[in-house]
Design goal:
Length: 301
């Protein structure tokens, strides 16, 4: 019996998710169906690919080698499919474009019309997810490109990274607080800091920028979105860091007071990423350039 591409995709998804339920959601099948295919794959291989440790799943040494080889094969198969589906380098289906939640609501309203105007024949299917899920989607082929704010971690799919623009951080407080001028990061009261919940890269960046300790983090309120945090800040229930791209939406109507950070400050670099083996690299480079141009024309917050 031969190993199928579907089984390889399932194994890659399970390796990256580390959990049968999350892997099944990622490849859009039921958990029993995924488990059955993984079991059949292990029977074909004559060796275990995964160690089952309660709810957690980890790769065996053989499984690591298998997934590395499978990932390369799947990437090549996806590239061949795209090549056969239409003209080289010109997608004939909507491109699946993922963005992180701390970028999507602030940048999409500007870049989506710009992309439609500049590339009228290009279809886009847009989704929002956290960085790890976006990278996993690039790896298993469910996404074509993603907009993220961190460097991809080693060990994942081989990606091309196109830097877009830097996004500085500012301090947000309630409107009743006095203008602090440029704020030293070390002077920020960690006990009042509001953070996003775990899994958001912006949470990790805020923790690193403010050098928050474990006790400070455990006390901090954790929200699912920046908009929720801003509501708490506006009510005088804490302070937070915000990325500059969020200010045109979140700082309207003087709901909050915005304070710049003293040098060297803090920030992040937004980047567009895609698989190295994609046949659409030229299109993605063009998309990256359109995003840069669009950003440069936006008014300051």
């Amino acid at each position: 019996m031969r190993i199928s591409l579907k089984q390889m995709r399932y194994a890659i998804a399970l390796a990256e998710a580390g959990h049968f339920g999350r892997a099944a959601e990622r490849v859009h099948v039921t958990q029993p169906a995924l488990s059955q295919q993984i079991k059949l794959l292990e029977e074909i291989c004559g060796a275990l690919l995964f160690d089952r440790l309660g709810k957690a799943v980890t790769l065996t040494p053989f499984g690591r080698d298998f997934v590395d080889r499978a990932r390369a094969i799947v990437e090549q198969a996806d590239a061949l499919t795209a090549y056969a589906a239409g003209r080289v380098g010109k997608p004939v289906r909507p491109l699946r474009f993922g963005l992180i939640p701390t970028v999507a609501p602030y940048l999409l309203p500007d870049i989506f019309p710009a992309l439609q105007a500049a590339l009228p024949d290009l279809g886009l299917s847009v989704s929002e997810n956290r960085t790890d899920a976006l990278i996993a989607g690039l790896g298993d082929g469910s996404l074509d490109l993603a907009l993220i704010a961190t460097d991809p971690r080693p060990g994942g799919p081989r990606l091309t990274v196109a830097p877009l623009f830097s996004d500085a951080f500012v301090l947000a407080t309630s409107p009743g607080e006095s203008n602090l001028g440029p704020v030293q990061l070390r002077a920020i009261d960690a006990r009042r800091m509001l953070l996003l919940d775990e899994g958001h890269c912006f949470r990790d960046q805020a923790i690193a920028a403010c050098s928050l300790k474990g006790s400070d983090i455990s006390r901090a309120f954790a929200a699912t979105s920046l908009s929720t945090i801003v509501e708490f800040v506006a009510s005088g229930l804490g302070i937070t860091l915000l990325p500059e791209i969020a200010l045109r939406k979140e700082a309207t109507g003087q709901r909050i007071r915005v304070h710049s950070l003293a040098a060297p400050g803090a920030g992040r670099m937004l980047s567009l990423v895609w698989r190295e083996t994609t046949p659409y690299a030229e299109v993605f480079e063009r998309i990256a350039e359109i995003i840069r141009q669009t950003r440069s024309t936006l008014p300051a917050a």
